[in-house]
Write a structure and sequence with these properties.
This protein is of the alpha/beta class. The protein is built from 14 helices and 23 strands. Helix 3 (79-89) crosses helix 4 and helix 9 crosses helix 10. The mean pLDDT is 95.
């Protein structure tokens, strides 16, 4: 049996003692083991700070961009191999695994190209010099420089490739080394992705390290210059934020957590129109893609009260074509959820929503046989559409995220009521308004903006340019307020903010001007 290694201090090393099993979620067979017991993660952190940080800071933005482009090409070259690992260990269909791997390579490429445009500097001047007197002899200048610690990235199970790449690309371009800890249960793809990166020979010592198991006490060792970025449950995010080291050392923390994302059908949209068809297609796809295991998946579907029956009918018609089973079986479009614990959580979550007044229209928590899977095996859930007859009384629908192929339809009667219902989730990553109407775009689109990191306004006139709300684009913000964690990732240059320190240089103007002469100048933020 394959025992996965971690990549620490420039070497592939294997933990000792008790291991965690990685399984094929279609067959429940063990495919690998992983452990970090006995590994010196404290030494690896020091290695990153002493070796990786200076190596990155010595590079210009353009050179860091070339590094990212090299890594992007390496990931793309291993695309088919990585897809197989996603099918084997994460239960992804081939299409879903491509979504993950291509997201990783394209994000690295985006930040690589951004690095090229930033040129030969290796830090930023933030805005113009500020006169502090009647002459230029005394002035101030804000600068942004790379933090001198390590970025510890703790990633979720659902995107073992993209999760690493989207965080690491921003840290590396800013000039900060990375220690990446994927979810152990699905880290087979991540291990082979990192191997592809290491094999390029482009990574300097300590620039990237991989932890394939528990982080042990590593979080408690983080210092004032370190960054902790986490994607996962809100409860775990809160626990990390409350760590003694985080509080004592004011460790910079960036969290992406739960999100009850919405699809909203505008009152103006007629059944059968291009905009309506787009709405139905997106709602059905987000229930089935990655078996609903996306942080951006649509969890609540808001519909004008008089349109509920037709919307439910049309979404169910699309869901009826889904084939659930092993990703290796012909014709399968929906794979299993990733782990046994995820299966339990999804089933329990459906029951929670039912107790809150939501009714199962199709699918549900019952056991189903997966096509191509051994009898009685596999973590399969049928694509599930629910209906909450009273959107105001269905408290759990607005408070409990079921992280699987489950979404709930809710009725609204006015734009103001819709905005109020959307807001009950306490903050989200992304929600989408489907409309052709300018007034509705303002009343609902801008009305829900304060509760989200991203709001999409979609209609049938966008053509092939529309990628759907579930595609996280590196040029746009990923994150959200409140329940969504309060963090921000990606968003072009904004993604670097977590890894940079803003400092005001104040004093003798000519000396300060000389100090920042080689900086890339940015507009003041």
């Amino acid at each position: 049996m394959d025992i996965l290694e971690s990549y620490l201090c420039g070497e592939w090393v294997r933990g000792h003692g008790k291991t965690a099993a990685l399984v094929d979620p279609s067959t429940e067979e063990t495919v690998a083991h992983a452990s970090t017991e006995g590994l010196d993660l404290a030494a690896a952190r020091t290695y990153a700070i002493d070796k990786g940080g200076p190596a990155l800071r010595a590079m210009s933005f353009a050179q860091r961009g070339e590094l990212l482009l090299t890594l992007s090409r390496a990931v793309h070259a291993k695309r088919d191999e990585l897809i197989e690992y996603g099918m084997k260990n994460a239960g992804n269909t081939r299409s879903d695994a491509k979504f993950d791997v291509d997201g990783a390579s394209s994000t690295l490429a985006f930040y690589g190209e951004l690095g090229r445009t930033l040129g030969d500097g290796n830090f930023f001047a933030d805005g113009d010099a500020i006169p502090l007197g009647r002459s230029s002899r005394v002035s101030g200048q804000h600068v942004l420089t790379a933090r001198r610690g390590v970025a510890l990235h703790i990633n979720a199970f659902n995107f073992p490739a993209w999760g690493l790449a989207e965080k690491a690309a921003c840290a590396w371009l800013a000039g900060v080394p990375v220690m990446s800890k994927p979810a152990t249960a699905t880290c087979l793809m991540t291990v082979h992705l990192v191997k592809a990166m290491v094999e390029t020979g482009a990574l300097g010592d300590g620039v990237l390290q991989l932890i394939t198991g528990s982080t042990g006490t590593l979080v408690e060792q983080l210092g004032p210059q370190d960054v902790l970025a986490f994607t996962g449950s809100g409860n775990t995010g809160a626990t990390l934020r409350a760590s003694k080291s985080v509080l004592t050392n004011s460790v910079r923390v960036n969290v992406e957590a739960d999100s009850l994302n919405c699809a909203i059908l505008g009152r103006d949209v007629e059944r059968g129109s291009e905009t309506y068809q787009l709405f139905v297609a997106d709602a059905a796809r987000d229930i089935t893609q990655k078996s609903g295991q996306k942080c951006t998946a649509i969890r609540r579907i808001f519909v004008p009260a008089e349109r509920v029956d037709e919307v439910c009918e049309d979404i169910m018609e699309r869901l009826s074509a889904a084939v659930v089973g092993s990703p290796f079986a012909e014709g399968v479009t929906v794979g299993p959820v990733a782990t046994a614990s995820q299966l339990r959580d999804v089933r329990e979550g459906i029951a929670v929503l039912e107790r809150s007044g939501a009714k199962v229209l199709c699918g549900g928590a019952g056991a189903i046989a997966g096509k191509g899977a051994p009898e009685g095996k596999g973590y399969f859930v049928a694509p599930t559409l629910m209906l909450a007859a009273d959107a105001h009384k269905a408290d759990a629908v607005h408070a409990h995220e079921v992280f699987g192929p489950v979404s709930t339809v809710l009725a609204y009667r006015s734009d103001e009521e819709c905005v109020a219902l959307v807001a009950r989730a306490g903050g989200g990553l992304v929600s989408t308004l489907y409309t052709d109407d300018r007034a509705i775009t303002v009343s609902i689109g801008l009305g829900i903006a304060a509760y989200h990191g991203r709001v999409c306004v979609a209609n049938g006139r966008m053509g092939s340019g529309w990628l759907g709300p579930g595609t996280v684009l590196p040029g746009l913000l990923h994150g959200g307020p409140g329940r969504a964690g309060g963090g921000e990732e990606l968003g072009g240059m904004r993604g670097l903010n977590a890894y940079l320190q803003r400092t005001a240089l104040q004093g003798f103007g000519p000396l300060i001007e000389h100090a920042v002469a080689g900086a890339k100048r940015l507009p003041a933020l």
